[in-house]
Automatic annotation (TrEMBL):
<keyword id="KW-0472">Membrane</keyword>
<feature type="transmembrane region" description="Helical">
    <location>
        <begin position="139"/>
        <end position="157"/>
    </location>
</feature>
<keyword id="KW-0812">Transmembrane</keyword>
<comment type="similarity">
    <text>Belongs to the binding-protein-dependent transport system permease family.</text>
</comment>
<feature type="transmembrane region" description="Helical">
    <location>
        <begin position="106"/>
        <end position="127"/>
    </location>
</feature>
<protein>
    <submittedName>
        <fullName>Multiple sugar transport system permease protein</fullName>
    </submittedName>
</protein>
<keyword id="KW-0813">Transport</keyword>
<dbReference type="InterPro" id="IPR000515">
    <property type="entry name" value="MetI-like"/>
</dbReference>
<keyword id="KW-1133">Transmembrane helix</keyword>
<dbReference type="GO" id="GO:0005886">
    <property type="term" value="C:plasma membrane"/>
</dbReference>
<dbReference type="GO" id="GO:0055085">
    <property type="term" value="P:transmembrane transport"/>
</dbReference>
<keyword id="KW-0762">Sugar transport</keyword>
<dbReference type="InterPro" id="IPR035906">
    <property type="entry name" value="MetI-like_sf"/>
</dbReference>
<feature type="transmembrane region" description="Helical">
    <location>
        <begin position="240"/>
        <end position="261"/>
    </location>
</feature>
<feature type="domain" description="ABC transmembrane type-1">
    <location>
        <begin position="71"/>
        <end position="261"/>
    </location>
</feature>
<feature type="transmembrane region" description="Helical">
    <location>
        <begin position="67"/>
        <end position="94"/>
    </location>
</feature>
<keyword id="KW-1003">Cell membrane</keyword>
Length: 275
């Protein structure tokens, strides 16, 4: 019993150390954002704010260094990409999972192989194509490369759709349902946890996307939040309280989103973890 208790205590100590390492940077960012620049310069970084101030948040929300336009652009980009990726990925994954057509396996294998290609390899060709099409520094220039799904999303949904019992679809066909009605009324309702997980992954990846918006946009009109925050850091490198306030605000919606859909993410893990 003593060895078992020691093992449990050691396990929790390791988990606690991991939690501190994972959450430490976020706590440090929050504490720094609530300090005045003079206090950050005079005192140690890990000290508590004294006095507490919200002026940094006021500045990045509506003051001289406002990030509200970039936040609006980012929300628009994420919403459009979320809808586009979910719809296109569902259709593509169901086609690869259930429909029979020549070259299905070969086409899916080739599409899946693109996951192995780093993003930086395709940046230059994509930029040349979009620049020649007149889409540089436009909203559609930001969203089109990833609007029609991703290999990871199609692969994840295909594997889940293949696990849906074929008898349910056969019963629906006997009742007169076509392929689209089966997808809408049978397959999609059974896939809500996986779709919620995919939605979280899509929102997080697109919210944090930096390289492509940086390359395809110029000027403040279509700047996303990541690009605007990076510009703020380069312009006001000495004012870390302002920069950390911007980064804390940028990550806050993602934390709220995860707390809202945490249950569905857990369900998707339980559904797919023992296949």
């Amino acid at each position: 019993m003593s060895r078992r208790a020691a093992g449990v205590a050691l396990t929790y100590l390791v988990l606690l150390a991991g939690a501190v390492l994972a959450l430490g940077p976020y706590l440090l960012s929050l504490l720094t954002s609530l300090k005045e620049p003079a206090q950050l310069a005079r005192r140690a970084t890990l000290t508590w704010p004294a006095p507490w101030t919200g002026q940094n948040y006021a500045d990045v929300l509506g003051g001289q260094y406002t990030l509200v336009p970039a936040l609006v652009v980012t929300v628009q980009v994420v919403v459009v990409l979320l809808v586009g990726q979910l719809v296109c990925s569902v259709f593509a994954a169901y086609a690869f999972a259930r429909l029979r057509f020549p070259g299905r396996s070969l086409l899916f294998g080739g599409y899946l192989a693109t996951m192995m290609v780093p993003q930086v390899v395709t940046v230059v060709p994509l930029y040349v194509m979009f620049a020649q099409a007149g889409l540089r520094n436009t909203f559609w220039g930001i969203v089109l490369p990833t609007l029609f799904g991703s290999p990871f999303a199609v692969y994840l949904l295909r594997e889940h759709f293949r696990a849906v019992p074929q008898d349910l679809e056969d019963a629906a066909r006997l009742d007169g349902c076509g392929t689209l009605r089966i997808l809408r009324h049978v397959v999609v309702p059974l896939s809500r946890p996986v779709l919620a997980t995919l939605a979280v992954i899509t929102v997080v990846s697109q919210w944090n996307n930096f390289l492509w918006p940086l390359i395809i946009t110029t000027g403040p009109k279509w700047q996303t939040l990541t690009v605007a925050t990076a510009n703020l850091q380069s312009q006001y490198n000495g004012n870390w309280t302002l920069v950390t306030a911007a980064t804390t605000l940028a990550m806050a919606p993602l934390v709220v989103l995860f707390l809202l859909v945490n249950k569905h993410v857990t369900e998707s893990i339980s559904l797919t973890g023992f296949r």
